[in-house]
Specification:
The complex is a heterodimer of chains A (about 300) and B (about 280). Chain A is about 35% helix and about 25% strand. Chain A is built from eleven helices and 13 strands. Chain A has helices spanning about 50-55, 75-80, 100-110, 115-120, 140-150, 170-185, 195-200, 220-225, 240-250, 265-275, 290-305, and strands at about 10-20, 25-35, 40, 65-70, 85, 155-160, 185-190, 205-210, 210-215, 230-235, 250-255, 255-260, 280-285. In chain A, the strands form three sheets. Chain A has a six-stranded mixed sheet, with helices on both faces. Chain A has a four-stranded antiparallel sheet with strand order 11-12-10-13, covered by helices on one side. A three-stranded antiparallel sheet of chain A has the order 2-1-4, covered by helices on one side. Chain A is elongated, with a radius of gyration of 24 Å. Chain B has about 280 residues and is mostly helical. Chain B has one domain (about 5-275). Chain B is built from eleven helices and no strands. The longest helix of chain B has about 35 residues, at about 100-135. Classes of the chains: A alpha/beta (about 300), B mainly alpha (about 280). At the A-B interface, helix 2, strand 5 and helix 3 of A face helix 1 and helix 5 of B. Chain B: Keywords: Membrane, Transmembrane, Transmembrane helix.
Chain lengths: ~300, ~280
């Protein structure tokens, strides 16, 4: 993955600002996606994820900044051939079969029909190809959407909340396919509203909050940069809670427990002091910051920065 | 660069969806039943000077003014609003397809459905009535004229329905709008004109403005053209009597249909170009 930095990015967004009359939907966003890279775009509803996709597709014009898709302007013929899109909650015509939907989009994209059967097999819809889309389950429809997005070997895939509403097994299969496509050299930008979902399934995480890009990096780097404190809950033996609190600090809960918030850097020192009190302590429970805590941390950054 | 292959792909899919949703079957059935019913005149028709097919074409022209716009608008109102609601329009516009190709393709697919309904209905009626009463050359010409102009009328209202569908962006709004449009074009327009003529029986309005206002309406233009071409053998009442006293060549009515089609399909194109999916 380290060699990728020398390759020109498939998607390059610089200082992008999008205004909807009074509302600033995107505010100086810069982001790149390189060949073979899977980037997760996270954000609440209304954070600007769909707006970003629509700008990359050429549906919206930037107020400021620039977007380049595989070296071409968004919406141009070259860009449209390079990019594939799966919108959030797409509903294909119920009366058509899966194969007919694929046939339609193959013809629109100018791709041969030879690949249709292979793509339907790839997403596990080979058996259901001749059935009407109306009879498909939610997961099957989403997989048909992915198969559609893979027509014509796109260089850049834009997937808007592709796994929302999928069960855990379908979700795993979905990410397996995406990993395989990225392995063949395509860049993938997919949006999601939960960090837990994209953990270990993407190479990089970008977080949008209120139209601003508040984080961009690997999950490990974001976690260490956030400097989030862990929380240690110590249950004291009967009558010893006061002594434990006097020694360690923290706050008392429900009579016999003490909770201490601790920076990652103070971890070792704290455990040393806890070790000295083994006589007074019945149990210890350590909660590390979760992915959701990290996400909340970066999302709230935009709010405090915006206020200053 | 316009790609015919993409236009045809859109047209084929639009037609296929209409066929699966029973639109082809239903519109053909409805039009066939109405045309058959009107092609067999009741007793007393023999007293008329014209042949049965000519009389049938006059009756069918009057019916088609109501039915053809209705079928065309029903076929078209969902064409874009449905895609916007289902989220497929964004997907389609992300492919290399041009917006103009999309409008052209949708129109062609729906026109195919309408053409099957109209041609089947009118051809079967012509054959059935002709087999019973005989095929008079004038009657056959009248039916052929009726079929071609009904296709033109249908094309105008398909274009109108497509434009409404793009503008409305919601299926419900589009359905309500096309119904209002239908009422306005085929019912209220004529009523308003009749009221004007009654109020001003021999004045400037009745003589100079009225015929132009009649022909400005695509439905009336279609009917006037067909009735004027039948000659004096067929009696007419109400607005249709203007057919015999036109201050212009009846062929101008065809130009009106062509102009409406060009304007409306152009509106659809412009509206779609301004739409952000």
């Amino acid at each position: 993955m380290t060699t990728l930095s020398s390759v020109p990015p498939l998607l390059s967004i610089e200082g992008l600002t999008i205004d909807f009359s009074a509302l600033r939907a995107l505010d100086r966003v810069s982001l790149t996606v390189s060949p073979g890279e899977r980037v997760a775009l996270l954000g609440h509803n209304g954070a600007g994820k769909s707006t970003l996709f629509k700008t990359v597709l050429g549906f919206l014009s930037p107020a400021e900044g620039s977007v380049s898709v595989d070296g071409a302007a968004p919406g141009s013929d070259a860009a449209r051939r390079s990019v594939s899109y799966l919108p959030e909650q797409v509903a294909f015509p119920k009366a058509l079969t899966g194969r007919e939907v694929m046939d339609y989009f193959s013809r629109l994209k100018g791709a041969g029909r030879a690949d249709i059967a292979r793509l339907l097999d790839l997403v596990g819809l080979g058996e259901a190809a001749s059935r009407a889309v109306g009879s498909y389950s939610k997961g099957m429809r989403q997989r048909l959407g992915l198969a559609q997005a893979l027509i014509g070997k796109p260089r850049l895939l834009l997937l808007d909340e592709p796994t929302s509403g999928l069960d855990p097994v379908s979700r795993l299969e979905f990410y397996d396919i995406i990993a395989r496509i990225a392995g063949e050299g395509a860049g993938v930008l997919l949006s999601s509203h939960a960090l837990t979902e994209v953990e270990a399934r993407t190479d990089r995480v970008a977080i949008l909050s209120k139209g601003r890009l508040v984080a961009d990096g690997t999950l490990a780097r974001l976690a260490s940069q956030a400097q989030l404190s862990m929380s240690v809950r110590i249950e004291a033996r009967a009558g010893r809670a006061d002594a434990v609190q006097a020694h360690l600090g923290g706050r008392r809960v429900n009579g016999k427990s003490v909770i201490i918030e601790c920076d990652p850097s103070g971890k070792i020192a704290l455990f040393g002091r806890i070790g000295g009190l083994s006589e007074d302590i019945a149990d210890i429970d350590v909660s590390m910051p979760t992915l959701d805590d990290i996400y909340t941390h970066y999302s709230s950054l935009a709010r405090t920065e915006g206020a200053s | 660069m316009i790609r015919i292959s993409r236009v045809l792909a859109v047209a084929a899919t639009e037609f296929r969806m209409a066929a699966r949703n029973r639109w082809v079957f239903l519109s053909t059935l409805v039009f066939l039943l109405f045309s058959l019913a009107l092609s067999f005149p009741g007793v007393g028709a023999a007293a008329m000077k014209a042949d049965v097919l000519t009389l049938a074409s006059a009756a069918l022209a009057t019916l088609a003014v109501y039915l053809v716009p209705l079928i065309a608008l029903l076929l078209a109102y969902d064409s874009f609003a449905g895609e916007v609601e289902r989220g497929t329009l964004a997907l389609i516009l992300a492919t290399p397809v041009r917006r103009g190709e999309l409008v052209a393709g949708k129109f062609l697919g729906l026109f195919g459905v309408l053409a099957i309904a109209l041609v089947t209905g009118l051809a079967v009626s012509t054959l059935a009535a002709g087999a019973v009463y005989g095929f008079a050359p004038a009657g056959l010409a009248a039916m052929a004229r009726l079929t071609l102009t009904a296709l033109m009328l249908g094309a105008v209202f398909l274009a109108a329905g497509i434009a409404v569908s793009v503008a409305a962006r919601r299926t419900g709004t589009a359905a309500a709008t096309v119904f209002g449009l239908w009422l306005l074009a085929v019912v209220l327009w004529d009523l308003a004109l009749l009221a004007g003529v009654v109020a001003d029986a021999d004045g400037f309005f009745a003589r100079s403005v009225f015929p132009w206002l009649v022909i400005a309406n695509p439905g009336d233009a279609f009917r006037i053209y067909n009735l004027a071409a039948l000659g004096d053998g067929v009696q007419m009442a109400g607005i249709d009597s203007v057919a015999h006293t036109l201050p212009f060549d009846p062929a101008a009515a065809l130009a009106v249909l062509a102009a409406w089609f060009a304007i409306l399909i152009g509106c659809g194109q412009i509206l779609l170009r301004r739409l952000t999916p």
